[in-house]
């Protein structure tokens, strides 16, 4: 690592000389822009809009415009600002760590002792350990006065720059002002889902999938050239992804719990059973009009039609349909019997006798 800055922590009247290093780095694969017709590299030039000339970086100054007036500030004038010349990290407070808003954290830096004896460095570190507090500091870095938090990580002092309060936006969403009612059952199920996913955080167990897949795409393109098939490379269609909105919150919670508890198959079987029950209920409703038809002939016709349909249904549906058909047949016979009894009461005995002869 290369130190980006040198200074000293001002801890009361104690000075702790340190070197500052960036504690983080970008692991993203670097891509550049090219012309899509010939592959030529795209370069950006600093061109003056007045004279049209390409300007070297050394000839560029900074400026501020207000009310139509422009103020040009030279490099020497900017360096004359007192805060810019300060190489002091001033400790201003020691506060409990929970009082720092995580959203304010910006960038992290390692601090290395920069003196023959690291005693003052170790003393400050011990003070933070013994009091279990974080040091709030102020310092200037890269043309900006910054607020920071000084804490310990693996026996090393870490400086974390903080955003100023006016740099953190206030969240205001009218949709959250509505009175949303959450049932006790929904809260219990969401708590159970949280518990089923509870674990100790281990950052090494996570992977930047986009960078892995980007590397996979680059390797495949190097091997296959323009004949690259992205669907074959990744096994899915390009741009495919779940974007569905959750409609039934309770159902989504139930399925999530089933999946985490390994009960996905049981849940599927339960839903299939419910679907079959719904189908059976629909058949019973459809059978009601058939009961109004007079005579065994109508009932027999309905039963025959139902039997023909059963051949295309699964075994569970056939069983349900068979029960439904038997029920309709019984009901139809009962209706036909009542109808025949009524007719025989109204007609003469001779006609009744002929009606009872077997066919």
TrEMBL record:
SMART domains: Ku78. Keywords: DNA damage, DNA recombination, DNA repair, DNA-binding. Residues 257-359 are annotated as: Disordered. Residues 52-179 form the Ku domain. It comes from the Bacteria. Pfam families: Ku. Transmembrane segments: none annotated. The keyword Protease does not apply. Residues 292-307, 315-343 have a biased composition (Low complexity). With LigD forms a non-homologous end joining (NHEJ) DNA repair enzyme, which repairs dsDNA breaks with reduced fidelity. Binds linear dsDNA with 5'- and 3'- overhangs but not closed circular dsDNA nor ssDNA. Recruits and stimulates the ligase activity of LigD. Belongs to the prokaryotic Ku family. Homodimer. Interacts with LigD. This is Non-homologous end joining protein Ku. It comes from Arthrobacter liuii. The gene is ku.
